[in-house]
Amino acid sequence: MKRTSRLILFFSSLTLLAAGALVWHAWWTAYPQGVRPLHAGSDVPAVELTFDATKDNKLTLASGTFFEIPAHAFVASDGTIPTEVNLTVREFMSASDQIRAGIPMQITPGSRLHLQSAGMLEVRANSAGKPLNLRPGVSLDVGLVSHIPAEGDFRLWTLDDAGSWADAGRFQTEENADRNRELARIDSALNSPKPRAVTPPVQEEKQIPWSFELYSDETNAPQLKAWKGVVWDWVPTGPTDTPPVNALRAAWTDATIVSRPDSSYDITVFFEQTSTSGQVTRDSKTLRATPRLNARQRKRTEATYVADVQATEEARAKLREERAFYASQGSFVYRFQTENIGFINVDVLSGLDDAPVVNLTFDFQTKSRFLDKTMLYMVNQDKKTVLSFLAADWDNIPVMDGRVYLLAVVDSSNAALVDVHSYDQLIRARARPQPFVTSLHVTTNRLPIEQALQLITSGEEDLATN
User: Are residues 130 and 228 in the same domain?
Assistant: First the structure.
């Protein structure tokens, strides 16, 4: 009887240990589900657009992305159709956006099969705080603007709130015609040829050998209109000085007029020419002249000229700012229709089955791997994707090509970062092809989470600039 009791106790203990091991393993290998921002202050901000839902609408974001929404497109869970709708939109155009928002890019958690993004949207709708969906049979026409040429196997993908991706079909690629048209308009205004310089020279008596007028075109050179019709007498600045006839007759691109104490003026004309090969040549020429105006006329004309110069520069600065706005938009528009709102992504599915594999340990590890739930994020700027691996999988991590950061959140406010250079030197250069698994101990840079994210974002901005 005692032996039977001992056997029962033994097998009960064994069963409890096995059950505990299963519970521990499930906890250790369980990846978080859904979209989870990396840090409280790191999430990607949203844009809110409010519109009259009883009419057809086209809503456009600053990025150029647009939504064409038919009237009465949305419905609440109780069946009511709102008259005013708030559309909340987030755009994720980079790997740093993805990691900030906590968007899972792997098809299954911890896997090597992942999506590379050419642009992603999150679209939500509400009315008076109540969430809305599209009415059955109603779809939105979407134009997602991107810098990335999504060619070949790129498709639409949707992400549900549990974090599962689904293939949503094809899309149509177009040039960003609105952007190109606005850039052409602004460039025309900024670079339009300025007026040719002078009327034919007027020969005068010997003491005034050469006279001219500055031609003022109020469209292309509005800053010169105050001097329109004023005759200038050229003033030699030395015994060998000759009238700058050729310079003033050339197609100069800008001019400045600066008064001198002796009532003469220095007029500087600027030249800019672009060759067929794209080479830009710049030059300038300064001449001295006196306007045929009395003191009162000169004072009034100068005041008008100064005001016109300021107004012209302000207008040009506004055009340059407007140009920068449109230039920041992507060159491509991906058009599609969707009957669902949520996360929508233009992606290509990629795998890493043939990539070298490494077994990583890090200097920030302070406890046994078997008790560690730290997430390691692999941020690939070139491929616009983020892969995440729990400590349970750090012994089998693929090595990716491209500009890669590794990031781990070690506590509520600090991160451990491996930058692009360190990743190349400490991991990629030392990894061996499969079937070998290279074991590496990696030193990281410890810094606040937001600072680490900013370094990753800055790296992407530098990549886009180059």
Answer: no
Single-letter code of the amino acid located at 271: F
What pLDDT is attached to residue 154?
94
Q: What angle do CA 330, 99, 44 make, to 5 degrees?
A: 60
pLDDT confidence of residue 155: 94
- Asked if 285 and 244 count as a contact pair (C-beta separation under 8 A), the reply is yes
Give the ranges where 156-195 is alpha helix by DSSP (H). Answer: 177-191
> In this predicted model, what pLDDT tens digit does every residue of 405-444 receive, in sequence order?
999 999 888 999 999 999 999 999 999 999 999 999 999 9
Name which of 251, 257, 243, 262 is nearest 204 in CA terms: 243
Regarding whether 214 and 311 lie in a shared domain, the answer is yes
Residue 202 has φ and ψ, to the nearest 5°, of: -105, 115
Residues of the chain with pLDDT under 50: 195-208, 465-466
Query: What was the pLDDT predicted at 204?
Result: 44
Give the sign of the dihedral formed by CA 319, CA 323, CA 326, CA 329. negative
3-state helix, strand, coil in the chain (%, to 5): 25, 35, 40
Over residues 146-155, the pLDDT tens digits come to 999 888 899 9
Whether a cis peptide bond, with omega within 30° of 0, leads into 435 is yes
- Which runs of E-coded beta strand occur in 128-279? 130-134, 140-146, 155-159, 165-169, 172-175, 211-213, 231-234, 254-259, 265-274
Do 276 and 375 share a domain, yes or no? no
pLDDT of residue 203: 46
Kindly write down the DSSP assignment for every residue of 334-361, as one continuous string. EEEEES--SEEEEEEEE--TTS-EEEEE
Q: What is the pTM of this model?
A: 0.78
Tell me the pairing of strands 114-127 and 343-350.
antiparallel
Residues 321 and 448 in one domain: no
| Burial class for 98, CB neighbours closer than 10 Å (0-12, 13-18, 19+) | buried
| CA–CA distances in Å: residue 207 to residues 116, 233, 234, 295, 458 | 77, 10, 11, 21, 64
> How far from chain centre, in Å, is Cα 187?
21
Domain that holds residue 313: 191-326
Between strands 404-409 and 445-448, the pairing is unpaired
Same-domain pairing of 318 and 380: no
Q: Which residues of 278-303 are buried (b: 16+ CB within 10 A; e: fewer)?
A: eeeeeeebebbbbbebeeeebeebbe
pLDDT given for residue 334 in this prediction: 96
Q: Is 29 exposed, middle or buried (0-12, 13-18, 19+ CB in 10 A)?
A: middle
In 10 A of CB 275, how many CB atoms?
8
